[in-house]
């Protein structure tokens, strides 16, 4: 607008100047009566005045074009600028309509995304509830199978022992019947001998000798009979004792059915890390502290306090029939930890249940020792996998969980992480399940945002030792597009 006003002012001034100068030049040429191309002076003055006005206008226009770049651009490209302006106005209107349409589509997609997230959350909650129920049923089935196998073994042993005693009793009864038959035969011989004594007097001496011999045999038979009767009495006592043991076994079986199994063999009660670079007394104190923690857990589950004032008792299997005492086990563990000073690593101590234990019993445990080496230094790659980010959030979540349970878990075991022995899936010590789920869903959102096949890398966010654990607190994930 400023250049247009300036141009109009200059054009008016130049027009006035041209009129004045043309009139002045015409009068001078008319006074001098000059002639050009044999024209009359009057027409010569008109031609010169006209040409002078044209030249001055051309010079003014050339000066404006050379001095003002905006005027030059407007003068040379006016039609192009006008056409482009109309085209841009048309495109701007189309873009405004498309922008409104995209805003409506974005609002609809946002609502669909909220519904999908809610559906995925409901599906995850339902799956978690189903997994918990299935795990509980599996544990109940395993517990009942173990109790049934133990009862079958004990019942089979009792039936076998009863069969052996019955066979022995049958053999004794057969011997007793044989002795009775011998006794009857001897009595028959004695009666025959007495009859012969009454009828045959001449053979008295011989008969007396035979009678004495028969009496001796009868005495021997009586002794044998008494021995057999004593043996039968012993067998009867054994059968009575066996009956009492059978009743005791039935009572114990009934008690085992009514009592809950609180720990299974190889269940881990607790774990701790002990530095070998300290005195034996300090190492022993750390061992006692770990055992006190295990005792507290066992007591809370229903175990009984024993003579050592703990709910746990340390044993060590020397051979198939004998165990080392608790004091010997602690001494061996203490010496083993102290001998690892040259390894420049702490020692991981696992307290593991040695036998199945029911409520009301003291838990027998074993001490398992491992070197607590550095397995993954900070920023060390643990595992990697490719995941399709174009799938639904639920499928992406299952893929990430499978990556953690297979690739990451197997890599950790190969690297030297000591896993929890027979872990209870319901309990994760020192870990906030809600925070773990939030971290997992954050990774799923990052993968979903890529909307393509991505490369998922798991790194150690801090130093990870053999004692573990490995979870979302000490791991970080890098999500990049797969090539």
How do the helices and strands line up, and which of them pair or pack?
Layout: H1 2-32, H2 41-67, H3 69-76, H4 78-199, H5 204-258, E1 261-263, E2 268-274, H6 280-301, E3 312-314, E4 316-317, E5 323-324, H7 326-338, E6 346-353, E7 357-358, E8 363-372, E9 374-376, E10 381-388, H8 393-415, H9 433-450, E11 453-460, E12 464-465, E13 475-481
Parallel strand pairs: 3-8
Antiparallel strand pairs: 1-7, 2-6, 4-5, 6-8, 9-12, 10-11, 11-13
Using DSSP, what is the number of strands? 13
> How does the overall form come out from the CA principal axes?
rod-shaped
Report low-confidence residues grouped into runs of 5 or more.
Answer: 425-429
Mean pLDDT across all residues, rounded?
79
Q: What is the count of DSSP helices, taking H or I runs of 4+ residues?
A: 9
Regarding quaternary structure, what we see is: single chain
- Estimated share of beta-strand residues: 5-15%
Give the topology string: H per helix, E per strand: HHHHHEEHEEEHEEEEEHHEEE
Task: Give a short account of the largest sheet.
Answer: 4 strands, mixed
What number of domains?
4
Radius of gyration, in angstroms, nearest whole number: 56 Å
């Amino acid at each position: 607008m400023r250049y247009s006003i300036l141009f109009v002012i200059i054009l008016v001034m130049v027009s006035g100047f041209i009129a004045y100068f043309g009139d002045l030049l015409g009068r001078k040429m008319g006074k001098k009566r000059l002639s050009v191309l044999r024209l009359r002076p009057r027409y010569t003055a008109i031609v010169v005045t006209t040409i002078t006005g044209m030249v001055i206008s051309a010079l003014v226009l050339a000066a404006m074009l050379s001095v003002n770049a905006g005027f030059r651009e407007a003068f040379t490209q006016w039609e192009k600028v006008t056409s482009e302006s109309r085209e841009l106005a048309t495109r701007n209107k189309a873009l405004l309509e498309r922008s409104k349409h995209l805003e409506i589509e974005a609002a609809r997609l946002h609502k669909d995304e909220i519904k999908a997230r809610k559906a995925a959350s409901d599906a995850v909650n339902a799956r978690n509830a189903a997994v918990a129920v299935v795990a509980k049923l599996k544990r109940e089935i395993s517990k009942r199978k173990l109790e049934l196998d133990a009862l079958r073994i004990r019942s089979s042993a009792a039936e076998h022992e009863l069969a052996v005693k019955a066979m022995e009793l049958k053999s004794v009864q057969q011997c007793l019947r044989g002795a009775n038959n011998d006794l009857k035969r001897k009595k028959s011989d004695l009666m025959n001998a007495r009859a012969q004594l009454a009828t045959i007097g001449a053979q008295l001496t011989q008969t007396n000798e035979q009678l004495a011999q028969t009496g001796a045999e009868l005495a021997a038979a009586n002794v044998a009979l008494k021995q057999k009767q004593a043996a039968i009495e012993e067998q009867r006592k054994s059968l009575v004792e066996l009956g009492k043991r059978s009743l005791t076994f039935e009572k114990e079986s009934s008690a085992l059915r009514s009592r809950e199994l609180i720990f299974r063999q190889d269940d881990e009660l607790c774990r701790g890390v002990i530095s070998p670079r300290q005195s034996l007394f300090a190492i022993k104190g750390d061992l006692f502290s770990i055992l006190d923690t295990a005792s507290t857990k066992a007591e809370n589950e229903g175990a009984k306090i024993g003579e050592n004032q703990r709910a746990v008792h340390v044993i060590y299997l020397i051979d198939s029939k004998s165990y080392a005492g608790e004091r010997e086990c602690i001494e061996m563990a203490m010496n083993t930890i102290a001998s690892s000073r040259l390894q420049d690593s702490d020692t991981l101590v696992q307290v593991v249940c040695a036998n199945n234990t029911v409520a009301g019993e003291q838990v027998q445990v074993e001490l398992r020792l491992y070197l607590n080496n550095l397995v993954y230094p900070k920023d060390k790659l643990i595992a990697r996998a490719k995941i399709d980010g174009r799938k639904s959030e639920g499928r992406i979540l299952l893929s990430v969980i499978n990556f953690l349970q297979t690739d990451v878990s197997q890599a950790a075991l190969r690297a030297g992480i000591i896993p929890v022995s027979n872990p209870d899936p319901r309990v994760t010590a020192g870990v906030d399940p809600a925070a773990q789920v939030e971290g997992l869903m954050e990774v799923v959102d990052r993968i979903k945002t890529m909307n393509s096949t991505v490369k998922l890398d798991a790194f150690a966010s801090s130093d990870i030792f053999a004692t573990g654990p490995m979870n979302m607190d000490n791991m970080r994930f890098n999500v990049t597009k797969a090539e």
